[in-house]
Amino acid sequence: MSDDKTRDIFITGLKNAHAMENQALSIMKPQVKRIENYPDVAAKLEEHIRETEGQISRLVEILTSLAEENSSLKDAALSFTGSMAALGHTVAGDEILKNSMANFAFEHFEIAAYRSLITIAELGGFAAMVNPLQANLDEEIAMAAWLEDNLRPTTIKFANLKEAGMSAKI
Question: Which segments does the entry list as coiled coil (predicted)?
Fold first, then answer.
């Protein structure tokens, strides 16, 4: 593979990652605004929103260092789909559970995306960009682990609230 083709793959991956992180924000921000009975989930989402904003900044720095910019079209398209996904769960009686499952799946998508992007960075000789990408990956792995660890307690709380006839609203 020529250096130009590897660079193109890397740039495309960076632009995709930037759009993916904007999509993540468009999913998490509406969720956190609706949470009433799960303060631990709200706090973690707020923390991860701040991390995601930092991830976007790291991606912009990498793109800028390569004399590239994010794709506004990709950002807009994925932000829109993220907003629609978040909106779709609002009508569900078990919104908190659906959001927890969807967030868990999305975190794993991000993990796979960063692992692939780091591999391309290594193959393409972009060693200086591996550390910021690894920082993003580490944050995604930590969030996925938190979601996994908290799915059971969140589900139990949801079931207990429903069983007690209380609002289990997210």
Answer: 42-69
d(Cα 22, Cα 140) in Å, to the nearest integer? Answer: 14
pTM comes to 0.89
Q: Find the domain containing 52 and state its range.
A: 3-163
Within-domain flag for 102: yes
C-alpha 146, offset from chain centre: 13
Q: Which two tokens stand for residue 50?
A: 């701040």
- Residue 2 DSSP symbol: -
Query: What 3 state SS string does 80-119 have?
Result: HHHHHHHHHHCCCCCHHHHHHHHHHHHHHHHHHHHHHHHH
pLDDT, tens digit (0-9, with 9 covering 90-100), for 34-73: 898 999 999 999 999 999 999 999 999 999 999 987 656 6
Q: How many helices (H) and strands (E) does the chain have?
A: 5, 0
Please spell the DSSP secondary structure of 30-66, one letter per residue: HHHHH-SS-HHHHHHHHHHHHHHHHHHHHHHHHHHHT
Reduced to 3 states, what is the DSSP secondary structure of residue 129?
helix
Find, among 147, 142, 62, the residue nearest to 96 by Cα: 147
